[in-house]
Amino acid sequence: MSETVKQAYQEAKRLYAKHGVDTDEVLIKLAAIKISLHCWQGDDVKGFLFRDKKLEGGIAVTGSYPGRASTPEELRADLDEALSMIPGKHKVNLHAIYADTDEEVDLDRLEPRHFQGWIDWAKPKGLGLDFNPTLFSHPKAEDGFTLSHPDPEIRSFWIEHCRASRRIAETFGRELGQTCVTNHWMPDGYKDTPVDRWSPRARLRDSLDEIFADEIDETYAIDAVESKLFGLGSESYVVGSHEFYMGYAMSRGKAICLDAGHFHPTEVISNKLSSILMFTDRLLLHVSRPVRWDSDHVVTLDDELLEIARELVRGDLLPRTHIGLDFFDGSINHIAAWVIGVRSTQKALLRALLEPIEELKRIEVERDYTSRLALVEEFKSYPFGAVWDYFCEQAGVPVREEWLAQVKNHEQEVLQKRGGASAQRRVHS
Ligand code: RNT
Ligand code: ZN
């Protein structure tokens, strides 16, 4: 271990200890927090089943940065590369369109064996897998409706797809010995003001009930449902709104998935965690960064991320919360985007863990709001960076921005040599 990193850590340790915070203990806690890396950042949400289909469903990727993965092997190699720059043990979040198979198989016919390549890859590494049915970028989703579609045949196709997805998830959980979280998100909604808001919601409720009627072992797989305020082309009405899924999840014992980018621009999810987990067992987070109309910018260490982390730590909500990332930026190196997103999320959690929570809570109860404000502000410039560096070095991953050199080198050696139209473009570094 480098002497400078060690010395800076010892100094920081002493400062935090003055407020009763044990940095060694904090690092043990941080190392135990798993973050699920969303595979779809690696290839701009294209997947492998329908390569020629353009991205639909009210979500969009801008940018055509060279070198994105176009086979399961490439995507796994890229994930390996990202994971080598991230401290700790984590999970990988797959979408159904990332099946690893040569067969021509439609979504309603997918089976666990189509994902064997992923299981074989994850198992020896101790990686967990999460899962998502893909209810977009498909001919049967072209008019913007899936599980709430008025046509019973289309609905039943998507119901079968979600049922198949839950069987795949259960296999992941059983094979890997880690609970697989299956997140159900669909784009259903109207661009303009609907006449009938009720019927699509009633159909969505019934479709979900049919999907969840299959018994699966909750030790291996749990389900989450994700709401959205609006999407591209569903600006006026989304069937699966926040209230819809609050009601659905609460009444059916499912987890709610909160995506940080799926609310009004000034509405934050940090303020929702303590309310939702007051009445439910588990929560799934899609950590993302909304910027104006886009809900999926790369996660950075901003105020809201820190506030989310604080809520999880201060309320002791981490054991009941599954943390996943959800963003897609096609304008920068795909691997770097993962590394930045995960490391920023971990830094936010570290900062939250390093706060003298008991002391601050006591001050608040005593109504000494002056000290509360003063201390919270002072703690922002405590040397958490020294603790972070030590954590990275301990874990054997690059310290500070050292990882960027690895990414640049890998880009030259591997990504730029990849085939495909996008790889032909010159990269400016
Ligand atoms: C879309 C949702 C959803 C997707 C992924 C690809 O707005 O956030 O989670 O991003 O399923
Ligand atoms: Zn999401």
Question: Which features does this protein show?
Answer:
eight-stranded parallel sheet; binds zinc ion; disordered C terminus; two-stranded antiparallel sheet; TIM Barrel; alpha/beta; binds L-rhamnitol; 2 domains
How would you describe what is shown here?
The protein is globular. The protein folds into two domains: 1-32 and 356-397, no CATH class; 33-353 and 400-424, TIM Barrel. The protein is an alpha/beta fold. The chain is 42% helix and 12% strand. Bound molecules: L-rhamnitol and zinc ion. The site of zinc ion has 4 residues, from loops. Residues 226, 259, 286, 326 line the site of zinc ion.
Strand and helix layout:
Blueprint: H1 3-17, H2 23-31, E1 35-38, H3 72-83, E2 91-95, H4 116-122, E3 128-132, H5 152-176, E4 180-184, E5 189-190, H6 198-212, E6 221-226, E7 237-238, H7 242-252, E8 255-259, H8 273-279, E9 283-287, E10 289-291, E11 294-297, H9 303-314, E12 321-325, H10 334-353, H11 357-365, H12 369-379, H13 384-395, H14 402-413, H15 421-424
Parallel strand pairs: 1-2, 1-12, 2-3, 4-6, 6-8, 8-9, 9-12
Antiparallel strand pairs: 5-7, 10-11
Helix pairs in contact: 1-13, 2-10, 3-10, 5-6, 9-10
The structure holds L-rhamnitol and zinc ion (ZN).
User: What is the total number of structural domains?
Assistant: 2
The CATH superfamily of the largest domain is identified as Divalent-metal-dependent TIM barrel enzymes
Q: What's the CATH class label of the largest domain?
A: Alpha Beta
**Shape estimate:** globular
Fill in the CATH topology of the largest domain.
TIM Barrel
- Look at the helices and sheets and give the structural class: alpha/beta
CATH architecture of the largest domain: Alpha-Beta Barrel
Quick one: biggest sheet? 8 strands, parallel
